[in-house]
Known about the structure:
Blueprint: E1 5-7, H1 11-23, H2 26-32, E2 37-39, H3 45-53, H4 61-64, H5 73-79, E3 124-125, H6 132-142, H7 145-152, H8 155-159, H9 167-180, E4 186-187, H10 190-193, H11 196-199, H12 211-226, H13 236-239, H14 243-248, E5 250-258, E6 264-271, E7 274-277, H15 284-291, E8 295-297, E9 303-305, E10 310-312, E11 314-322, E12 329-332
Parallel strand pairs: 3-4, 7-12
Antiparallel strand pairs: 1-2, 5-6, 5-11, 8-11, 9-10
Amino acid sequence: MSPGITKIASAKGGRVDALLAKQGKADKVQLRRRVDFRQATQPDGKMDLLRKKYRPINATTETSKHTTGKAGSKSSKKSSSNSEGIPGSGGLVDSSGFRRAEHSLFAGERLSDGWRSVRPIGPGLNNLGNTCFLNSVLQCLTYTPPLAEYLLAREHSGSCRVGDSCMLCRFEAQVAHALAKRSGSAISPKPIVGRLKLVAKHMRIGRQEDAHEFLRLLVESFQRSLLNGIDPKIDRRVQETTLVHQIFGGYLQSQVTCSKCDHDSNTFDPLLDISLDIQSGSSLTKALRAFTRPEHLVKANRYKCEKCSKLVDATKQMSVYKLPRILTLQLKRFSIFGGGKINRYVEFP
C-alpha cells in the first residue's frame, strides 16, 4: 500500500471561513489554522506513477547510481535488482514499478512443492451426463501437489465460515475421497455436480460445457470462499495473496519502450493461467515464444510516450514478471477463423 495523506476539514471551519471572508481577513487566518492529517487507507496510483517518473534531488549516491547516467543508463536500470524499492514507496514498489502487497492473507511457506508421501493413483470419475469437462478439471486439480497436500490436512474446512455453499470445502472432500481409494475403481463427484450452479449459474447438467471456463469459475469460487468475512475494500494486492494466488497466481508485465528516448512504461496484471495460441505452433515452447514476441507500434498504432509527450514508434512486449508456483496453460484449440477445432499434435515437456 502506498503511503499518502488525507486532509480532514471540519464543518465548523467552513462557517468560520465564510465569516472571515466577509470581513476580508480570511487569508491571514486560514494560513495559521491547524490542519490535521491521517494515513491514507487506499493506494494512491497517481503518486506511484510520479515516484516512478521523478527522483528526489537529495537522493543518495547508492540510490542515484541506478537511475542516472547517460550512455548505458537504460542497461543499468534493467540490470538492477527488482527487490530494490523506489525511494519513498515504503519498500513496496520495486525498481520496475511493481507494487507488492503490504501483507499476506496466506503464507506461501505453508505449502509443499511436491507430494509429502508416495500415494497410489486414485480412481477415475464417472460421467454423470456430459460432465467430461468437469471431470477433467477435477482430476487436474486433485493431482496438483501443493493444493492436494494442503486440502488433505483439512485445514480449510476446519476454519471455513461459508457453510454448505463453500465449493472449496466440497473439493476438499473430493480430494480426500479420491486419494483414499485405489485405482481400478471409479467414483462419482456428485457433491460438486449437484452444486454446479454455485460455480456458474449458466451451466447445466447434461449439457457440454467448456473445461477452461469451468476451471476459471471454479477457482474464482474458491477465491470467494477464502475472502469471505474479509473487508471487500481491502487492497487488491492483498486479495491476491490467498491460498489460490499462492498456488496458481503470478503477474504478467506489459512493457512499452519508446524508440526515441528508450523510456519504459510498465503495467502489471495478475494471472491465474495463460491462454496460448497454437494456430501456427507445434510445441508449447513455440507457443510461449509467440506469446512473448515483441510487437512494433507504428503508423496508426503509435504510442504516446509519457516522457516525450508525443506520439512515437514503440515496442510492446508481454512477459511473465512473476511466475506462479503452479503455471496453468490453456491451449486455444478452436480457430478464430471458422471456429473449427485445431487437432494438431502439440509437444510439451
